[in-house]
Description:
Shape: rod-shaped
Strand content: 5-15%
Largest sheet: 8 strands, mixed
Number of strands: 8
Amino acid sequence: MAELSFSAFFRSDPPGISRDSAGVPANRYAEEALARHKREGLELAVRTRTIAMLIIAATVTMLTPWPEVLYYLVLIGLFILIGFAQRRVGRVGLSRAELVLLFCDLALMTLIAAVPNPFATQDYPAPFHYQFAIHKYFFVILATATLAYSWRTIFAVGVWTSALWAVAAIGIWLTAGDYPEIRQATQALYADAPLLAEFMDPSRIVWDQRFQEIIVFLMCAGILTVSVRRLYNLVLDQASAERARANLSRYFSPNVVERLSVNDEPLRQVRGQEVAVLFVDIVGFTSYAASRPPERVIDTLREFHALLEAEVFRHYGTLDKYLGDGLMATFGTPTTGPRDAADALACARSMADRVDAWNAERVARGSVPMRASFGVHVGPVVLGDIGANRLEFAVIGNTVNVANRLEAMTRRLDVRIVASQDLMDRARAQEPENKLFQGFEDSGAHDVRGLNAPIQVWTFR
């Protein structure tokens, strides 16, 4: 069984997530998801931090006499302002301004712990002031850091806090004066309890207590770092799922995407089933493109494809592929439905109507109309992924070839839609109303390359 090292844990990302130089996932959906969570986390952190500071201010006001309380109220106000500044500069990835503000937070808290209140009515020795258990307030900063969904921020809080706390202790130890009178009085008072006398010495740095504070804080910061790192990966996993869902939505209708998103690799199952296939093409597009600027040609294709794509999805179809100026759509993939043939025929008719409306708009703005042709057939196909590294969901079989050749037959018959007899029979069985079939004419039997016998076709002008 493979082991995951601690360093590998901090480097690991979900599959398919790469990073740029700032440490931000080089994936649009991952970036958007992390940016959204970062914004939401910072908003929540600022609100929570402000409420916490107001509660601390109320507590300090009740416990600290005037005018000493002014010192702490001013510092609490600075904490609140730093929080709002962090919200303004916070972003996904490396943000030096955000790190500077974070360091200001911790330095300000260390200043409160290490430097006596200048408004205090009594002059406490600095080591004695350092023992007032102010270190617990660092946990407020650590807790609010978790709301920003940044495990690096939490790790930085843990390391910087421990370093600043240790530096403050060493600085006080080096600079604090000696108070022999108080020490001697304390030793005389607690002559029978030397440990208590030592603890009450105002010039003493309680190193074992400081060491415990640092170790406990680092442990809490480490646990929270791991927890938020896991949450961070869940956000990236969610972004990967959103990306996969968006990719599916390029090919399948929304209801099919919903079904695919809750299944495990449904497209990898190679199988045979009956599918309705629709081919669409623009008649004479090659000559149209030859005499026009490339930009106009591409704009025309984009408009045309947008119309057709919307109709495919509206009729619960799958956009199999674009074919230059046309496309291939399937109905009954990846799973069959109760009216696949009827949906394919209804889609072809709706496409024809949409192209008519589009042509009216083109003529109104001085452009030439475009003629679209459609071929529809139904029959057995083979479904499955093809390719080695770059997979493609493929629909293969003679049914696809027949539908393609029926579309080509529209030019010879001078019609817009050619549908096979099999398609019409299945559509009538699935759609008993006659409105779908109005305008179709029986055009007799025609030879189709790839078939041993002629097939009956229906046409729509």
